[in-house]
Amino acid sequence: MNVLVTGGAGFIGSHVVDALVHNGHEVRVLDNLSTGKKEHLNPRAKFYQCDIVDLESIRPAFTDVACVFHTAALARIQPSIENPRPAHDANATGTLNVLLAARDAGVRRVIYSASSSAYGTQLSLPCHEDMPANPQNPYAIQKFIGELYCRNFSELYGLETISLRYFNVYGPRQDATGAYATVVGIFLRQRLAEQPMTVVADGAEKRRDYTYVGDIVEGNILAMRSDTVGKGEVINLGCGKNYSVVEVAELIGGSYTYIPKRLGEALETLADNTKAATLLGWAPHTPFAEGVAKLKKEAGLI
After folding, report:
1. How far apart are the first and last CA of the chain?
2. Which of 39, 120, 201, 228 has its CB surrounded by the most CB atoms within 10 Å?
3. Which residues are catalytic?
4. What is the pLDDT of residues 16-59, one digit of tens each?
5. Do 129 and 151 form a contact (C-beta atoms < 8 A)?
């Protein structure tokens, strides 16, 4: 099968590409390399260097493609608060362009990398897909808009879509520097540099559901194969257990210091993954402590 992965040189996208290549698919990668890296490109995939913000430039990559995995994004909260416009262009307009290109090329299915940030703060946990969205920052709003576009394209044009809401993905190739770094990546970098880990001031209360990238990849592959989805469904991909930022630092090991708390972020996330189990047959396989241990070993910390 011909498949396309937008953002296929990025953290999650490159892992999806590797799995698809391993499974024998003809894979194309579309990436502008703004946050993706050339060293993450699978040499067996055909590479298109272009930007999803430019609709006409991306159209050739969609020709004769059966399934698109849309992982391209500017995927962090704080940069979207500091400068909402480029994040909107990539996350909202870019997703619309991917859907338009897919529709016009006759693509059968688009699998969208959505975000648990769409839930925002909820009155009860765990978060399930029937809860009303409550996005609290520009990134969350933009990713939620992408979900609405996906559902709308299924309803209006018959394009099969699935939105997978990821809960705090971590693993090999995660960003460790710059504005788009993840907390696990930052802490590992700080430990390697023999610096104290920087924990936000509410880090004892701020809890996240961390999901290993390999489990996220499996969810994407199952979404491609499933004949029970494709009508714009929103499906959580999360472990169903959460950890405080302080607990993350303690799992990695070493000293830590506190920095000011950040605006626009939910205090706690926790996934109900019942729908993923029912519709996709998906379940997480990597406990957080095991995943962190893998990364510590890879980094030479154990």
Report:
1. 41
2. 120
3. 139
4. 999 999 999 999 999 999 999 999 999 999 999 999 999 999 99
5. no
Q: Are 285 and 225 in contact (CB under 8 A)?
A: no
The domain covering 183-207+242-269+287-299 belongs, at the CATH homologous superfamily level, to UDP-galactose 4-epimerase, domain 1 (3.90.25.10)
Model-wide pTM > 0.85: yes
- The Cα diameter of the chain in Å comes to 54
Residue type at 239 in one-letter notation: C
Report helix, strand or coil for 90: helix
| Beta carbons of 146 and 138 less than 8 angstroms apart | no
Q: What number of other Cβ atoms are within 10 A of residue 237's Cβ? A: 28
C-alpha closest to that of 199 among 123, 139, 147, 251: 251
Strand-pair partners of 257: 198
| Contact (Cβ atoms closer than 8 angstroms) between residue 162 and residue 223 | yes
Alpha-carbon distances, residue 159 vs 63, 78, 106, 149, 276 (angstroms): 15, 33, 8, 11, 21
Tens digit of pLDDT for each residue in 107-118?
Answer: 999 999 999 999
Closest by alpha carbon to 112, among 174, 181, 64, 160?
160
Domain 2-169+213-238+273-280: which topology? Rossmann fold (3.40.50)
> Which residue type sits at 157?
Y
Please answer whether residues 236 and 116 qualify as being in contact, where contact means their C-beta atoms are separated by less than 8 angstroms: yes
Domains of the chain, residue spans:
2-169+213-238+273-280, 183-207+242-269+287-299
pLDDT tens, residue by residue, 166-208: 999 999 999 888 766 789 999 999 999 999 999 988 888 899 9
